[in-house]
Amino acid sequence: MKLASLAGGRDGRLAVVSSDLQRAALASDVAPTLQAALDDWARTKPALEALARELEAGRAAGSPFDPTKALAPLPRAYHWVDGSAYVSHVELVRKARGATMPDSFWTDPLVYQGGSDDFLPPAADAPFRSEDWGIDFEGEVAVVTDDVPMGTDAVKAREHIMLVMLVNDWSLRNLIPAELAKGFGFYQSKPATAFSPVAVTPDVLGGAWKDARVHLPLVVHLNGKPFGHPDAGIDMTFDFGQLIAHATKTRRLGAGSIVGSGTVSNRDRARGSTCLAERRMLETLDQGKPMTPFLSFGDRVRIEMFDPAGRSLFGAIDQRVVKAA
Amino acid sequence: MKLASLAGGRDGRLAVVSSDLQRAALASDVAPTLQAALDDWARTKPALEALARELEAGRAAGSPFDPTKALAPLPRAYHWVDGSAYVSHVELVRKARGATMPDSFWTDPLVYQGGSDDFLPPAADAPFRSEDWGIDFEGEVAVVTDDVPMGTDAVKAREHIMLVMLVNDWSLRNLIPAELAKGFGFYQSKPATAFSPVAVTPDVLGGAWKDARVHLPLVVHLNGKPFGHPDAGIDMTFDFGQLIAHATKTRRLGAGSIVGSGTVSNRDRARGSTCLAERRMLETLDQGKPMTPFLSFGDRVRIEMFDPAGRSLFGAIDQRVVKAA
Question: What residues 46-105 of chain A have any CB closer than 8 A to a CB of chain B?
Fold first, then answer.
């Protein structure tokens, strides 16, 4: 099942989307918003699935689905915790900052709490006040949970994964060193995050959903040119179950919590990268200095994932970087 | 105007509460929840104020208000950013961790992004899985904003403060050093936060609301004994306008965003403290080691604020520390 939030109100209007992303049917009779559906998932999921079957069979009243008009599946959420599950990427980024990475990073997940009141629609302009801040994208996969009890272990945690979606975790690289030096983590350096047009239930991914990882390439284009296509199932040191278990060590997670993978990254350099920082680090290692600049106003970033037959699974996050009004 | 969320559903049922905290009237006709009211504040605020006047005059159908049954004013929220506005406290805590504080901390606010999907009711038990984690309370003041544009300056930001409430920002001190050493800030060391029974509009505070600060003592009791009563208006290096301005440097804030002051702390030691960590630091300075232990299961923490006539303004956060089920 694929779900989207169509424009309308702060939380959008929940719709079921056909598997080919061509048609959508409003799910207002089941729940007005995706958050409302997740708040009562045991009841709403079967009803949404029934609607999805009707839509797929051409029996439900649908209308054309325009992914470029969709909001983020959750236009705002109550919890957004982003991991750094691709530890080899963390190691590279630390190198780029002139910092070393403790060995414990291979066994203890690194996460940060993100702002969740203002998620960017997948095709909305991404506004920034200054190009000097080192505007960068980060291609990621994220899952949405139901209510997860405190102290849930990594295997049990897998049962709490309700939806999967893609993320562009916009980052302001030049603000990061000073902010992290203050000791309390990211805040200004992690502005509003963008999500894919639809969130999907894990079964949509078929065999590509395995071991609480998505075993498909995350395809990133910068200004229309291929930038990277690392496989999200490879080199993901911590699976989503482990990330959720880490998150629930001292707290519950409420329904609709979003847990991110961190920047998808493969050791295989032929796969490219899903953020500029990683490419710049590799350039520094190879050529002594970064060659690829951070983003300028007008640049476009597209993030997408395809099934083995080449069909877009989540629709594209495709945004233009603009100067904030 | 005083607002509370009565039990019922994940977001409670919005009620207007009398100024003496004795009576409440459900505001369902205006908005079902406080978040819904804040989403449409220009319309709902006058309607809620009218209801509050009716309740105050004994003309609205009210019922007795039991602060121990209230939920957090926002039982869950989309954004919870907590400052460390009492910089002299930050200096002390850093000393306790054997760290020094950069001078820039006096001019550049330190904030962290908190989890906001699961706020504890003011009189609910506070559950923790282990006493070994160094369970501590932090008495704070917080404000709730409407929609705040990106790049709002500190003076303009004051106009976006809609509500004020009290906070117990539960902290797990023994988890902090290792977590901060990882570089991404707090996550496991900041479990679910508790808020006061009511949130109030700034006008309720009268002259005590000045310069975007609350000029009243924050009164903390530990197991029924006075623990501290520092004045929240004194030694608050950054006012709430400055904290909001810091928050909006790179992002908008959505309606219902909560901005915290950080642990209230006065240089005047006679005022006591609003967290154990600060008292333990002072003991270390005076006696070479901390004498006051962190909390044990069964301990109670009460946080309250009174008007000059001794009337409780927000009701009490009064929680017992318990072992998580």
Answer: 76-79, 81, 84, 99, 102, 105
pLDDT-derived band at A97 (thresholds 50, 70, 90) equals low
Checking if the pLDDT of B97 tops 80, the result is no
Q: CA A197, A198, A204, A207 torsion: positive or negative?
A: positive
Three-state DSSP at A35 gives helix
Count contacts between A and B (CB, < 8 Å): 148
CA separation for the pair A192, A108 (Å, rounded): 26
Instruction: Quote ipTM for the complex.
Output: 0.97
Rounded to 10 degrees, what is the CA torsion of A206, A208, A213, A217? -140
Q: Could you tell me the two tokens for B86?
A: 């009492």
Cα A133 from Cα A285, distance rounded (Å) = 23
What's the whole-number mean pLDDT along residues A246-273? 97
Q: DSSP 3-state assignment of A111?
A: strand
- Is 0.90 topped by the overall pTM? yes
**Dist CA A280 CA A284 (whole Å):** 6
Report the run of H or E that residue B194 belongs to, with start and end.
strand B194-195
Nearest C-alpha in A relative to B172:
A250
Give residue A60's pLDDT band: very low, low, confident or very high (50, 70, 90).
Answer: confident
Which chain A residue has its CA at the smallest distance from B94's CA? A183
The average pLDDT across B300-314 equals 97
Tell me which residue of B292, B169, B165, B170 sits closest to B225, measured CA to CA.
Answer: B292
Residues A12, B188: Cα–Cα separation, whole Å:
31
